Amino acid sequence: xxxxxxxxxxxxxxxxxxxGRHRTSLLTSVVLLALLWGPSLAGRQSQAQTPxxxxxxxxxxxxxxxxxxxxxxxxxxxxxxxxHSNLVGDVTVPLAKVKTLHAAGFAVIEKNQHITKTVEAQIxxxxxxxxxxxxxVLPPNAEEKSFPAKDVDSLIDAASFNRELRGDHDFFYGWxxxxxxxxxxxxxxxxSQTYTGSVILVRAIPNSVWLPPSSKTLLNLSGSYGLAxxxxxxxxxxxxxxASVTKTxxxxxxxxxxxxxxxxxxxxxxxxxxxxxxxxxxxxxxxxGGLGWNAVNSPxxxxxxxxxxxxxxxxxxxxxxxxxGTPTENLASAAITETWKHILPHAMQFNELITATxxxxxxxxxxxxxxxxxxxxVYKRLSFSLSSTDNYLGDPxxxxxxxxxxxxxxxxxxxx
Length: 416
Hints:
12-stranded antiparallel β-barrel; 9-stranded antiparallel sheet; 2 domains; elongated; 9% helix; mainly beta
């Protein structure tokens, strides 16, 4: 019988290190550490030696009563200073109440100065100091210039000045206006729900009052949907409340493009679509064009009058006939519109629009709409709004009312 194979032995021997081996190993470690940490240490040392960019000095506004605001000058126009304070947000004060104003990077535009690309080089741009009824501008590479404050129309920040003058903007630039949402819910024996919303946006090119207007695009969307359900209630064999369902469904969409042919005169084309379940109107669409007059254009008031010729089509709900006996009417019509925008104290805003649409081939098919809303600022761009809309249709199907009135309250976000 053979003996089993014995496992190999593991022998551990201890040898004395050779002279110099310890020093070689230590030197290798030092070299590796230098390779690993050297670039990092050099980068840190370089960062430490690189001087930090100087912090930009904020703009400063001091009123004649001694109150001081720190932040950023937005603009000066038509005797009013708009200043963004780091503490209280945007503030607008008369230029006459300003004791001193220090701001960096602004263009100074004099009153009655016609701005074109050819005079761009003549407009001084630099740090601005307003004090002692004078405006001083310190261009970085030119001599200081001084103007009497009464002769200055606007102070525009350099970036906006160059962008507007050269037309350097895309489709998303320049839009402004309110976006409003509202809702109401009730749940009990009877239940109801109502949702409202509107988008009213305007894009003016250029987006500055110191340049003559070129074009304007308007977008107007609104909707109101409501559903109320009353349950059947029977007590002691008597019907106290019959079951019923009430529906509200009103939609509007409109777009317009204006092209100015003179500082206050513009030609425009427009398109609109309306749906009103309450008036039996499934779809009303209109396409046309005309002329408009910007009768008033000031920082606090804007008033337009417009007149146009248009093609209009009315389609009634479920094929119901109109008073003329047809479910669809093709109309030749006109539209006369006035709009008014007014800025109230404390930055409140009132907007109003009235449109009358007489028709020529079917006289009773005329229509009209009137809207008004009041916006109360709450916090930064958030506001509270009250709105009313009255739609009138001259030829609804039998059994439908001609008038639809809406009153809504909601939260508004102002696009700027």
